[in-house]
Amino acid sequence: MVKRLVLAIVSIAMYSVSAQNGTLSPYSSLGIGDFRSVNSIETQMMGGLGVYTDSIHLQLNNPASLGKLGLTAYAAGFTHTEIRLETYNQQQRPSVSNFEYLGLAFPLIAQKAGLALGIKPYSSVGYELEDLRTNAEGNSIANQYRGEGGVNQAFVSAGFQILPRLYVGATMNFHFGRVETSRVQVNEGIAYGTLDRRTSDISGFDFNYALTYEPMVSSKHTLFTSLRINTQTNLVSSNNRRIASFVPLTGVEIEGIDVNLDRDFLRFTEIKVPTTYSLGLGYGEDKHWFVGGEYSLQQFSDFQNDFLEGDNVVYENGSSMALGGFYIPDYTSIDSYFSRVTYRAGLRLDNTGYVINNKPLENFGITFGLGVPLGMENEFSNLNLGFELGRRGTTMNGLVRESYFKVSLGLSFTNRWFQKRRIN
Prior knowledge:
The chain has 424 residues and is mainly β. The protein has a single domain (2-415), classed as Porin. Helix content is 5%, strand content 59%. The protein has helices at residues 2-19, 41-44; strands at residues 34-35, 72-86, 91-92, 95-109, 113-134, 140-163, 166-187, 193-213, 221-230, 233-246, 253-258, 268-273, 276-285, 289-298, 304-305, 313-315, 318-327, 342-356, 359-373, 382-392, 401-415. It has a 14-stranded antiparallel beta barrel with strand order 2-4-5-6-7-8-9-13-14-17-18-19-20-21. The chain is elongated, with a radius of gyration of 24 Å. The two termini are 25 Å apart.
């Protein structure tokens, strides 16, 4: 049964990776798209905290957690987001559904060493914008901007216990994907429009290192600490650009040329996403409750993407603050099912590092949800349902404000591998 379910999840996930836009945000026109910073649904419901670890769940962004892993864990996540886009005088309500991640983790030595692998989105591009203007002669000029694609991330992680309650881990991420953007201009009174289409095939590596120390401060309570470093992502982009004229009524291309990017040294360009440092602190009682916070800092002012550079945008250092926790009334309860449910909540505030029209782009979100056990016979497997209410951007300075409501579904299954069968 588990094998069939995992095969179904893999099939859905592979289709999703190839088919999804991932976002409908106009801000995905910046950089290489919206950076997804995907966490497991359990972690997302606590504001995105990476400091908490246990022995039964796959923690996507903290490889040191694998040193605690006691059971094989399968994990998959899906989301649906309803968005309200607002400018000073307009409003739209798009929605988008996404595959979030697929992962497998298993202990090499139970609660001493573990290994994980999987796939998740890294960035997403999906926008369609229109700019209408009038020239000096009173004729209208229509510019349409479109973009789609993004970058995915395949990862392999390992974690180890090096001393009692001290764990280290590392992740190697391989990035791959394609970003396609276009600009179409149609001038009133001119028979033909112009098209500028750009394509970037992107690939590269980065590494994520983690250290966690979780001392007991009383017979029941644990102090959780973590330090994570996601090293600078060095990507290589293979680029193409085509400029053409076309008939606006039919869209038929009349004449086009492939731009000689070698002349300007833009055929192959580097994309550098700066290092992120994260420090977390938490406190709780095992299998009962936890509360914690985390602060992340990224020197985003060093971001570089020469080929797809945006207009009216500069980069500054980014940061993120998260608070969250969970509560389980009684995980051993037999009489009350809801006493074994995990209740989670959190909030986060992000400074993305983008400054558009002299206005920093910030994001605020409130998260909450449930972790529902899948029966006593699967006591460590669960279904996680999460919700997030948030807002990004502003209507000031000619920008767009995004208000969103995200529903997340996470599946977490556990099993025992390499267990010898015995006959009593």
